[in-house]
């Protein structure tokens, strides 16, 4: 069983500004848990920029989590595809440490808001799974709740960076929640997520 969640956020900045800010979104006041970031690979393929970055992040563990995880730091891989022709930035992130305890895979599509081309929409999807016998549902529920909290903080922090770079009134732009839904998936293969490479074709 895999826990699945979707939502949309609205950034009051142009798509090109959001894309430029995306590469500079750390540090910000909401990202104190991000310890490091490194570019592992970057190349242009068919006029699209493909990037792979590695992040080291930390999160406070609940007491029960200390039974399974002996470190508060976790490595996160981020793969992204920037298409300047279609004006889309698609990112895929997943944790590479302790994935058997709780694996989190997130896909975000940044694109021009059709209703207001001077703003940008971020469509976010996340899959959470756990292989801990007898506790997988509880761990997935915990992971989903933490993801929602962290997602809100991430949007707020990103808006802070964008406002610092381009100005504008973002006092109420912690990310406008346009739509959100939560559902259960019987198997990960039923979704558009594919193990191994994070690129979805």
Automatic annotation (TrEMBL):
It comes from the Eukaryota. InterPro entries: PRELI/MSF1_dom, Slowmo/Ups. PANTHER family: MSF1/PX19 RELATED. This is ACYPI001929 protein. Pfam families: PRELI. Residues 2-170 form the PRELI/MSF1 domain. The lineage of its organism: Eukaryota, Metazoa, Ecdysozoa, Arthropoda, Hexapoda. One of its GO terms (cellular component) is mitochondrial intermembrane space.
């Amino acid at each position: 069983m895999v826990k699945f969640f979707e939502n949309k956020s609205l950034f009051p900045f142009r798509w090109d500004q959001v894309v430029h800010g995306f590469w500079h979104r750390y540090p910000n006041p909401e990202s104190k848990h991000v310890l490091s970031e490194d570019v592992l690979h970057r190349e242009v393929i068919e006029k699209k920029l493909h990037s792979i970055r590695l992040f080291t992040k930390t999160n406070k563990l609940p007491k029960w989590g200390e039974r399974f995880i002996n470190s508060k730091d976790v490595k996160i891989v981020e793969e992204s595809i920037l298409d300047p022709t279609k004006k889309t930035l698609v990112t895929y992130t997943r944790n590479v440490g302790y994935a058997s305890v709780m694996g989190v895979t997130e896909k975000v599509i940044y694109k021009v808001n059709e209703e207001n081309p001077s703003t940008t929409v971020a469509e976010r999807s996340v899959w959470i799974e756990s292989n801990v016998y007898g506790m997988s549902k509880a761990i997935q529920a915990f992971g989903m709740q933490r993801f929602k909290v962290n997602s809100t903080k991430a949007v707020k922090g990103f808006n802070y960076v964008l406002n610092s770079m381009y100005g504008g009134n973002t006092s109420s732009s912690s990310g406008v929640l346009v739509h959100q839904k939560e559902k259960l998936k019987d198997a990960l293969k039923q979704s558009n997520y594919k193990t191994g490479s994070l690129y979805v074709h």
